[in-house]
Input
Amino acid sequence: MRRNVFGFHAILITFFSLFVVVSQAEKAQADFLSLPPASSRPRVISQHDIGDCACGPCAVFNALEFGDPALNNLAAALPGHAPADKVRALIQQYGGQPSIVTRNQPRYLDNGGMWEDDLVSFINDCLKTDSAAPVRGDHLTRQANETGTACLRRVYDELSHSLTAGFPPVVNLQAYTEHKNFFHRYWKWMDGHFVTVVAVQNTLPQDASKFSMSVADSQSGRILEVSVYADQNRQPASLARTQTQRSGKVPAQVARDYPCLTIQSPKLEGILEGPANSAQTICVIDYAVHR
Output
C-alpha cells in the first residue's frame, strides 16, 4: 500500500491544513453529488487479492468503474473476468514503464506501490487507448496569498468539476505521528494511501470551513465518508526525516525539515496504519489527479 510520496519534492507548505475524518458512507448526512444508489453503484475493488501496495492501481480501477460510460468501457475492456484480474492487467500494461521519480525503477513495484507523480502518466496512458480526455495532477496546498477558506473552495471546485466531467478524482492521503524532543515538536511520516473520490456534497456555502465527500477505498473494499476541513488557526510543525522511502524499502534523499500540513485525524478505519495507543496522528490530503 505504501510509497512515501509526500516529501520527495520538498514542497513548502504553509499554515493551512485539511482535517480528514472518515466513517462509513452509510452514516453520511450531506446531500452528495454524483453518488448513485447503493443498489446500482459499482462494487469497490479490494486490494487484498492483488497486493499490500496496490492501492494506487486499485484507485485507478475504481475511477474507471465509477466514472462516465467511456471509463466504464475501458474497465470492461481490460483483460480478465474478475476485477482483481483487471487490476493486474492495468499494472501489467501501464505499471512497467519507468517512473518519473525514480527512473531506474518502474512506476509500480509489488513491494513499494506508486509515487503520486507517476499516477498522471499511468492514467493518461490508459485513457488515450480510447481517446478519452486526459487528467492532470495537483498538490492540494495553499497558494500564495490564498486564505484557508479560499483553498478549501478551490479544492472542492476541482473535485466536483472532475466528477461532473466524468472522472472520479484519485487522491493521496498521508498520515504522520507526533514526536517531541527537548527542543521542539515534529511530525514523522507514517503511511500513505490512494483513494477515489466518488461523490462530494452538492453545494458549498460561501463561508464554509469544511465539506464532505465519499471515497472508494480498496483497503476496506467500501465507500467511506470523508470530511475535509480548513483550519487556519493550527500552528505549523516541522516534518523530520532524513529520507523518504517507497514502502520503507527504496530511499530517496529530500530536505530534512520543512513546514507541513498539520491536521488532526482519527484512525481512518485502518486505512492508514498506526497502533491504537500511539501518539497523536495527523492526516493530510496531499495530491489529486483530476480533470
Summary: The CA atoms of residues 231 and 244 lie 26 Å apart.
